Amino acid sequence: MYFIKNYLLAALLFCSFTLVSQAQTIAHADIDDISQSMPEFKQVRSELEIFQKQLTNELEMDELKLKQYLEKVQAQSIDMTPRQQQDAEAKLQKMQQELQQKLQDAEKKLMEKEAELSKPLFDKLNAAIKAVAEANKYMYIIDKKLLLYSDGGTDATSKIKTQLGM
């Protein structure tokens, strides 16, 4: 009987130590704060803004051409034959479709450019997160914005920033 009580007590203590040690292996970090503090983030944002302005300028030029053609057609519509009006309407419709396609292509190009420019930044950030996790024996580092509830816990934000040299 004495042996069973000691065995159960030892098992209970072992389980509670295991639970405590597992609870301490989870950390959280404010990934948005970290990434936006990185010098690379500002560079990526700047390059994306420049690229977006280029795409916007191209689209605005095409839109201006469309408006000018529309105004020309409207001004000449009185003197146009029905066949010329049909041709002008078909050309307008084609120009609108091309402009719509260019807008979709521009959005796709912008997303691809963002992914291309952001990849090195996030690779560096992920490497720092992994290094901090390994150095501090964290099983998980969870993004702070994904937490539904936290009563304190281990905040690894400053450790990750230090790992990144910030």
What can you see in these coordinates?
There is one protein chain. This protein has 166 residues and is mainly α. It has one domain (2-163): Protein Binding, DinI Protein, Chain A (2-Layer Sandwich). The chain is 77% helix and 6% strand. The chain has 5 helices and 3 strands, in the order αβαααββα. It has a 3-stranded parallel β-sheet, covered by helices on one side. Helix 3 (39-76) runs antiparallel to helix 4 and helix 4 crosses helix 5. It is rod-shaped. The two termini are 60 Å apart. Residues 1-22 have low confidence and may be disordered.
Question: Brief overview, please?
Answer:
By secondary structure, this protein is mainly alpha-helical. The chain has 5 helices and 3 strands; from the N terminus they run αβαααββα.
The CATH class is: Alpha Beta
Radius of gyration from CA coordinates = 30 Å
Residue-averaged pLDDT? 87
Q: Tell me the major beta sheet.
A: 3 strands, parallel
Uncertain segments are 1-22
- The backbone outline, from C-alpha atoms, is rod-shaped
Task: Provide the structure class.
Answer: mainly alpha
Total number of helical segments?
5
* CATH architecture assignment name: 2-Layer Sandwich
Number of strands: 3
Helix content: over 70%
The string of secondary-structure elements, in order, is: HEHHHEEH
Let me know the CATH homologous superfamily. Skp domain
Order of the strands making up the biggest sheet? 2-1-3
What is the count of distinct domains? 1
Can you tell me the CATH topology?
Protein Binding, DinI Protein, Chain A
- The CA-CA distance between the termini, in Å, is 60 Å
Strand content: 5-15%
